[in-house]
């Protein structure tokens, strides 16, 4: 197999702020795998809180040779096990995993979701509202009426005021994402109002290492369900997650791709946890990889491609708040 890679810089419609910072552009890694006259394409995004960068991911791909890839693209388990054992970053593995699944689908003439025994349908995606002023948040809500679910980034001084503004302008489900920005005192103080506002759940409110905060929050008489994101990297993390939260958020950039995401979903189900699939800022290729397994999930947050200007790939649809996948082979997207 021949492997090629490049960095693609995605431009956001507007600055996007979470508890860890603000961004206007997001680079992703595009990988092409060529074998037997067919080319599979995959995308990977860096996990910034792991210190990953697309430049480092690109360098990793440069070191991936025949010994790691082998000569059989169908040998997914063996290939991805070798990549993991070599310590390749999750985003690098996500891109290669995506390219392999795309190649297999193209070779067999079937979409990846069908080859996995899954369905093309999924719950509606949430649309993410970044941290902003109260007025800026209200304006974003007014412009997001085509979505059936909103996810609001929190972790700022005016969280409650912003959420009051969101609820005033949106009657549907609202979820919040702390990106590890709260401590237990903030959570205790704000939770009664969050319950009053009908917030569906909170995603990763505390730092992943602050186990005591998660345990203390579970003991509150009144609390929101907790979906763990940064705490849920791979399937092996699920037993601890089951003690600290109510669900996990799959991101292929953490799990190393579709195969790892599938494993995380199954492990979470075995532990009685809710399953969500999320994303980084990605093009339709990266989002399309996650969408292949979205039918496994209770909650979907695959809106990264909706936050960017014209991206390099096309193939996903958006119908009544749902990100729809193609019947085309593999990931089902094409270069623009």
Give the strand content. Answer: 15-25%
Q: Write the element-wise H/E pattern from the N-terminal end onward.
A: EEEHHHHHEHEHEHEHEHEHHEHEEEEE
First-to-last CA distance: 25 Å
Fraction of helical residues: 25-40%
What is the total domain count? 2
Secondary-structure class: alpha/beta
Number of strands: 15
Which shape, going by the Cα principal axes?
A: globular
Outline the biggest β-sheet: 8 strands, parallel
Mean pLDDT: 95
Q: C-alpha Rg, in Å?
A: 19 Å
Number of helices: 13
CATH superfamily of the largest domain: Enolase-like C-terminal domain
CATH top level label of the largest domain: Alpha Beta
Q: Quickly give the CATH architecture of the largest domain.
A: Alpha-Beta Barrel
Low-confidence stretches: none
Tell me what the structure shows:
With 336 residues, this protein is α/β, with parallel strands linked by helices. It has 2 domains: 2-109, Enolase-like, N-terminal domain (Enolase-like, domain 1); 115-335, Enolase-like C-terminal domain (TIM Barrel, Alpha-Beta Barrel), CATH 3.20.20.120. 35% of the residues lie in helices and 24% in strands. It contains 13 helices and 15 strands. The strands form 4 sheets. The protein has an 8-stranded parallel β-sheet. It has a 3-stranded antiparallel β-sheet with strand order 1-2-3, sandwiched between helices.
């Amino acid at each position: 197999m021949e492997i090629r890679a490049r960095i693609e810089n995605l431009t956001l419609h507007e600055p996007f702020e979470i508890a860890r910072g603000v961004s206007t552009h997001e680079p992703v890694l595009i990988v092409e795998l060529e074998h037997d006259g067919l080319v599979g394409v995959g995308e990977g995004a860096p996990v910034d809180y792991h210190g990953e960068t697309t430049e480092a991911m690109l360098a990793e791909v440069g070191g991936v040779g025949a010994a790691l890839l082998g000569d059989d693209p169908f040998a997914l388990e063996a290939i991805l096990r070798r990549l993991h054992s070599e310590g390749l970053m999750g985003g690098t593995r996500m891109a290669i995993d995506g390219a392999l699944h795309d190649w297999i689908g193209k070779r067999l003439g079937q979409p990846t979701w069908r080859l996995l025994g899954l369905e093309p349908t999924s719950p509606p995606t949430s649309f993410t509202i970044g941290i902003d002023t109260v007025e800026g948040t209200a304006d974003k809500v007014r412009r997001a009426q085509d979505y059936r679910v909103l996810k609001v980034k929190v972790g700022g001084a005016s969280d409650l005021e912003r959420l009051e503004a969101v609820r005033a302008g949106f009657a549907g489900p609202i979820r919040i994402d702390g990106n590890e920005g709260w401590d237990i005192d903030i959570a205790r103080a704000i939770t009664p109002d969050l319950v009053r506002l009908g917030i569906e759940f909170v995603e990763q409110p505390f730092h992943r290492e602050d186990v005591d905060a998660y345990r203390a929050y579970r003991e509150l008489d009144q609390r929101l369900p907790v979906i763990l994101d940064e705490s849920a990297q791979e399937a092996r993390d699920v037993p601890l997650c089951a003690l600290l939260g109510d669900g996990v958020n799959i991101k292929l950039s953490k799990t190393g791709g579709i195969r790892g995401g599938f494993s995380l979903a199954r492990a979470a189900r075995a532990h009685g946890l809710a399953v969500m699939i999320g994303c980084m800022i990605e093009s339709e290729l990266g989002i399309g990889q996650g969408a292949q397994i979205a039918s496994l999930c209770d909650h979907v947050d695959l809106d990264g491609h909706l936050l960017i200007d014209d991206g390099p790939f096309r193939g996903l649809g958006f119908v009544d708040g749902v990100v729809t996948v193609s019947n085309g082979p593999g990931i089902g997207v094409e270069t623009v």
